[in-house]
Amino acid sequence: MADAGMLRFHVPEPEVRPGGTPDFSNVTIAAAGSVPRPDIDVDPRTIRDMAFSIIRVLNRDGEAVGPWAGLLSSEELLEGLRHMMTLRTFDARMQMAQRQGKTSFYMQHLGEEAVSCAFRKALEPGDMNFPTYRQAGLLIADGYPMVTMMNQIYSNEADPLKGRQLPIMYSSKEHGFFSISGNLATQYIQAVGWAMASAISNDSKIAAAWIGDGSTAESDFHSALVFASTYKAPVVLNVVNNQWAISTFQGIARGGSGTFAARGLGFGIPSLRVDGNDYLAVHAVAKWAAERARKNLGPTLVEYVTYRAGAHSSSDDPSAYRPKTESDAWPLGDPIVRLKNHLIGLGVWSDERHAQAEAEILDTVIAAQKEAESHGTLHAGGKPSTRDMFEGLYAEMPPHLRRQRQQAGV
Amino acid sequence: MPRRTMIEAIRDAMDVSMGRDEKVVVFGEDVGFFGGVFRCTQGLQAKYGKTRCFDAPINESGIVGSAIGMAAYGLKPCVEIQFADYMYPAYDQLTQEAARLRYRSNGDFTCPIVVRMPTGGGIFGGQTHSQSPEALFTHVSGLKTVVPSNPHDAKGLLIAAIEDPDPVIFLEPKRLYNGPFDGHHDRPVTPWSKHELGEVADGHYTVPLGKAAIRRAGSDVTVLAYGTMVYVAQAAAEETGIDAEIIDLRTLLPLDLDAIVASVKKTGRCVIVHEATLTSGFGAELSALVQENCFYHLEAPVARVAGWDTPYPHAQEWDYFPGPARVGRALIETMEA
Predict the structure, then answer these.
(1) SS3 sequence, B63-99?
(2) Residues of B whose CB is below 8 A from A148
């Protein structure tokens, strides 16, 4: 080679940029039903290949097939469909409210609804999620009131967080939803600590850690895997791979490892990949991992392969960095359409009932929105007091803060 | 009353706390079987078992991050960072997570953790075993920062910190672990067994956070100090013959401003001493507070004696350390101003 000895710097690039034709032909997707379901006490060394495959239940004809199928009744699936539809409608209304200036910021889940909605149904009461900003399905699927979520988004007088937090950074201990920081990856090791505490206390509760593909590059991801592996913590380590970290394609965080699930292998953690747009597959894998945690078998790493069909946030414009048609070309489809077709195939659902449910859900969301807006929006109506800004930093307000509050005249 | 070293007093505080409350857990690097590189946790694993006191991977962010998760669950972790110099990987977890959890969740989740770390130099530890990063914590809304100066206070303050419902940074001046070091590095140090503040009562007691102590009453000048510098200031006062009133702050945040203001209004002069670097050090905050609250009582400019604005050197340790000679000069200049 002419340039032998001269080093060359490598920067990965996505396959396609704006103006190009989306092409996912290089994405290898296992056929639905083809990946075996090992026993939960399997020796992790014997299932390393699962970190490079994709567990899928729903096939192209909308049938549930293979060893991961059959866990959910049609009633439970109908409920799951309703949760995903509710989340999508909620997102659309709140995204619009942000555009109308009713709040500063919003983040939607478009295309990723199955991940958090299905996962929630694999947990027990008292279990704790340490979510990122894109798992509101955990709240929707647990019956957390939409009005309360909207009050938080609007930072209004009824905001349970008193206007202190950016929109969508919810917190609900009661619903097993740890306060969202807004920082990335910090919650991952905290989830492991929570799980360690549960084990230290001989409790039966487990934790679920959440992170996106991009943030796996943070050192706290490594910290979490070390601690989870060392102490066999009862935690499910979730990685939501939605292909994009704002404008940065997943290859920048992933490097040469092939998959994010493969990150768990060096820690001896069973590491699975699952079709994140397949409600049944997400639920089945989550259930398997949760059961392992609860039976003292330790952590499981799960990579949900999905696609962020919308913008990263209300401040983002994906057309600047990826083809507009890329989401249509995404080979794993849309989670709502896929579950809908499955239920129609089961004979328990129809296009008419679906359209009717969409209308009902829209009415419910609009009613919640009206109620929330009666308590104010970011720039209009009732809002948290300036006094609230000084409260609640410490259990007891220290003297210097009391003086500053007096200076502020509140 | 039994006399204990500061190490024994700190260990006793954790022992008492673990005995009273099974929610208290202790972990960190080398903390479990071995009992810590300074031996502060010696015997705790044998007494309380591996689930209450255990070794952690060398991962400070992981130690503090997991402690935050444990606190959110309902435990009361008291973790050790082996040297304060090693805390930087955990700084994100401390400042953006532990400090703000109560606030951002409006009390839905809280973070009652204690993060112990040996601080300060004087042991030929070089730039990575000598730092005093207290100002990096006092600048953070939501943390409390404590620096004990003797075994009696160390035990009472640590028990109070463990029982506190919010995150507390507990900085242990490592040069004081075995005796009240006054900066005269060429002389033997009196062991705590021969010092009245080495008296440490058995069982449970607390020293409240946010309360300073007057170590030496005086009328000429107020010296604000904490940790090792309390003894350096005492030596400087004795050697210059200046009747200094030495206030041991004990807790930097919340700060006992009332004690500071009362003393400076009485003496009309103020010298601030710390081992950390000068610029933007905690002394800057103290100086500002003194002029804001005592300006019309001041007879002289507020003086600061601190570590030079360089990394902590190895061979030049005693040129760097603000010893009794430098503090004495500041006392004299302040009296003559």
Answers:
(1) HHHHHHHHHHHCCEEEEECCCHHHCHHHHHHHHHHHC
(2) none
